[in-house]
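Treating backbone geometry as a discrete language has practical consequences that deserve illustration. In the encoding step, the backbone of a single protein was reduced to a row of integers, each denoting a local shape. The amino acid sequence and the backbone structure tokens for this protein are reproduced below.
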Amino acid sequence: MTVGSNSEVGYTGDPGALDAGAVPAARAAAAAVGGGAGAGAADLQRLAETTGRIRAAVETVIEGKPEVVKLAVTVLLAEGHLLLEDVPGVGKTMLAKALARSIDCTVRRIQFTPDLLPSDITGVSIFDQQRKDFEFKPGAIFANFVVGDEINRASPKTQSALLESMEERQVTVDGTTFHLESPFMVVATQNPIEMEGTYPLPEAQRDRFMARISVGYPSPAAELRMLDTHGQVSPLEALRPVADAAEVARLIETVRAVHVSDEVRRYAIDLVNASRTSPELRLGASPRATLQLVRAARAAAAMDGRDFVLPDDVQKLAGSVLAHRLLPTAETQISRRTTEQVVAGLVAAVPVPALGGAAHLRR
């Protein structure tokens, strides 16, 4: 490999929200129609079975958080990246590792620290004395699942090493581009409380995460079960893959075929535009946010067995997909309103489109 070349190389080494409840007639009419030009019934059945196995496997490790696990799988099928933000000890890293281990694919973990270098993530070209040429040594980003622990403890320079790979699914080193294998997902964790020695994620980095999840504390019953299951041996050690990378790639293709009507597309755009004009925000959601909101809604619809997206899907995902991208005004912060609450207010204020029946939801 020659430094400064412009070649492209495919590297194959092994290195919340409100429920609208406003479209029951449209839902019933659409459900009464068989077939469709989108995802087939057999594909949706296979997707439901596979995601059910993945969710069940992860839930053996993460007690009492089925909705959190479902959202994580939704982001996976929507080809997004996931940011887990919560207080220490609630299972952020455990969730990321359990999701990765439930699928038979390449997994790398990166412990972000202040002295971590960008080349530790992307890789580096090393001169081979015998060959008299540079040889590329791939970094930790070359995997199907990349678990980034405490991402905000690395410097902004190191954080920026993820930008190209997360958006374009490729890595460029010394003028040579290496394509990443599919599926590719970054699951990063950060602690919002302990801010000493951390570097807040810049807007460009946060915007590349499809969704942000707060795991939250378990219920007393779930915590009691956790003491039983985690008391002697970690269930993570006993977790075995229930799907493989090729199977997940096929599920992603099924999700891509889920139909989104013009009305639902415009509704997603209206929600995002409302964030840009809200007096409570000094920075609204980007066009990338609109795209990722629709992608996530497609995945959610497919997991519910539908080959079409409802406004309900968009509403339920709006908080997780939009809130971490928004910057509140000083007045909003003084009033102690979170961006999640602002998004919930936007969902309540933006009119839900009137759907006349299945013809508006499907091709």
In short: The chain is about 45% helix and 15% strand. The radius of gyration is 21 Å. Confidence is low (pLDDT under 50) at residues 1-37.
